[in-house]
Amino acid sequence: MTIVADGLVPTISLEGARKQRGALTQARIRWMILAVILGLALVGGRLVQLGLQETDQTIEGQTRDVITATRPPILDRNGLEMAVDIRVPSLFAEPRRIIDVEEAVRALRTVLPELEEEWLRNRLSGDRGFVWVKRELTPAIQDAVMRLGIPGIDFITESKRFYPGMNEAAHILGSTNVDNQGIAGIERHMDGESVALLQELGLARGNALTPVELSVDMRVQHIMHEQLVDAMTRYQAVAAAGVMMDVHTGEIIALASVPDFNPNEPASALVKDTFNRITAGIFEPGSIFKTVTIAGALDSGAVSITDEFDARYGIRFGRYTIDDFHGKHRILALPEVYKYSSNIGTIRIMQAMGKEAYRAFLSRMKFDQRVQFELPEMRTPTVPNSFSEVGAATASFGHGLSVSPLHMVTAYAAFVNGGNYIAPTLYKRDLSEAERLYERVISAETSANMRYLMRLNAISSGGSGSQMNRQALGYRAGGKTGTAEKVVDGRYSSSKVTNFFASAFPLDNPRYAMVIMVDEPKAENPQSGTTAGWNAGHITGRVIQRVAPMLGIAPDFSELLDQQIVPPAVRRLYPEGF
Amino acid sequence: MIRSINIFLLCTSVAMLAGVYALKFSIEGTANERTALAAHIAEQEGELSLLKADWAVLNQPGHIGPIVQRHSEELAIEPVKQEQFGSFAALPMRPAKPDTAAMDALFAAIAEGVDPIDAILQLEGVE
């Protein structure tokens, strides 16, 4: 530029023109800088505005993440799915975008006639941005609604819980509500543990959640459920329930209670009498409690397995006389007291132990508190804090106190597994883990005696478990019957009874304990009775017969196994052992 | 010189403008493709979840049990009984050593043309 200026413009005016130009350029630069700053300020302002803006992610007060949150699948101990998540379409509307409400209502009701017209009209009118119309529909209905082509109506995919086993494991699994939150059973427990937290943090999305493995074996669960449902018709019972537990690890293998509900329709759980009788039902256990009394007395050393007890006459407490049902009315040895289920004999055994020691033993077996267990549906047992003479006498044969069947199965497991109390669990637990939780409640020697008594009751003639053993021959099962009379109008009724059968198998090397309960059974046919051996005993036998092969227990008919569990002290008295 | 630089700069700007536009459109296309793929994946995941649920239903003992019962007569099947179980211990032991005398006698008989199996087959009328 300077070269051109030097050559063409006169020197004097050159200085002025230069200055003029320089001033102009400087002004232009200033304007330019101002424009650039303004532009940048505009961009910056817009950025701040965008940053401050909150996009509405909520759906009727809940975040989208919660709606589409998933739950981990639940598997049984063999990896079979017990609960899975499925994606289902849910219908929503944006009322502010609906042009003709009347037409939309009419069209929607052609596909979903169950929607009430008035309700739907109110729902679709107004200026709201989002309302649910109907949640969790089928893909077929989704297609039909899409074909209607109503503006302002659309679908969102939600996760829905599905239980492929239907009713079978209903009381174990519980159910979830429409927002995929657990409302009962293990689903509720899982929420308390970790799932709720994951969902809250927004981590529970997609299918990435690790499956939860339960201790339940669906094959055994199926047999148990099938037999209980069969019992309802066979014995015209009001209810039936059963639970099976691994005696060494405390894992619950099967747990069922009928009448039950379909967890896929949570509303069916609200029907009366569908509560979980194993955990949330407390009953007078009746004679299956004699096992507890005898175990406590044997362990205290107050009685020995060969002692004899006078059961010739009933025992008087003031105005009451306690007598035996089908009594022998002679002097009975301890194994005979157990076998003939003698009330008199059991009271004498308890009295030899002393009622305070007996009450302390019940506390040691945790009969006066809830069982430590995952299901939220639990009831506190009612066991008096201290026993009167007559209270202790009735308690010794299972009356005047109420405990849940879960208490009983846990106690029986401890009696046969060598004397260690282990709290039941629905999650997988291996032996080393369980051994850390063991609490010794009776000695190993007492446990061996209890195994003998339970097996004796099954195989000796006149034993109350013989009906069970006929069905489960070869599986070395044994147990105790319990027929508890129900209280009707303040009195014990002999026609309405709750029957129990508590058992364990195989008794030469116990692995499983089981309690079966039948509520108010009738005789199957005119030849059969209504006592526990006829119904609860039969069910136990049939269940063992079906599930033992599944659990890897081979039948063995050799008498040697039964002879091996006879304690030496008994053999000195009765050489044949049984 | 300046002219040519200007022309060159102008050309580069136009070329870069075109390039940026093309890039923008291709990115929009990719984004669309991605959204479509995500929707497709979501749809297939939904279908997969249904199939998995189906599979779980079909595998339930509660589903298989009634089918077995329905066909138990045709297939002549029933729950296994205790007596049907055996053990390895119950199998007879293999003889300590082969019965050579009997084998020799058998081979001698076959060499003479007398096949003991033939006799059994003829007895039962099998050719």
Keywords:
heterodimer; A: about 575 residues; alpha+beta; Penicillin-binding protein 2a (Domain 2); five-stranded antiparallel β-sheet; about 20% strand; elongated; B: about 130 residues; mainly alpha; 5 helices
3D structure, described in words:
The complex is a heterodimer of chains A (578) and B (127). Chain A is elongated and about 140 Å long. In chain A, the strands form seven sheets. In chain A, strands 3, 4, 5, 6 and 9 form a five-stranded mixed beta sheet that branches. Chain A has a five-stranded antiparallel beta sheet with strand order 11-10-20-19-18, with helices on both faces. Chain A has two domains: 65-213, Alpha-Beta Complex (Penicillin-binding protein 2a (Domain 2)); 220-573, Beta-lactamase (3-Layer(aba) Sandwich). The mean pLDDT of chain A is 84. By secondary structure, chain A is of the alpha+beta class. Chain A is built from 21 helices and 20 strands. By secondary structure, chain B is mostly helical. In chain B, 72% of the residues lie in helices and 0% in strands. Chain B is built from five helices and no strands. The longest helix of chain B has 58 residues, at 2-59. In chain B, 5% of the residues are buried. Classes of the chains: A alpha+beta (578), B mainly alpha (127). The interface between A and B is medium-sized, with 31 and 21 residues.
Q: What does the main sheet of chain A amount to?
A: 5 strands, mixed
What is the overall number of helices of chain B?
5
Helix content of chain A: 40-55%
Query: Would you report the number of β strands of chain B?
Result: 0
CATH fold type of the largest domain in chain A? Beta-lactamase
Task: Please mark out the parts of chain B with pLDDT under 50 across 5 or more consecutive residues, or reply none.
Answer: none
Using only C-alpha atoms, the radius of gyration of chain B works out to 42 Å
By secondary-structure content and strand pairing, the structural class of chain A works out as: alpha+beta
Q: Globular, elongated, flat, extended or rod-shaped: what is the shape of chain B?
A: elongated
Helix content of chain B: over 70%
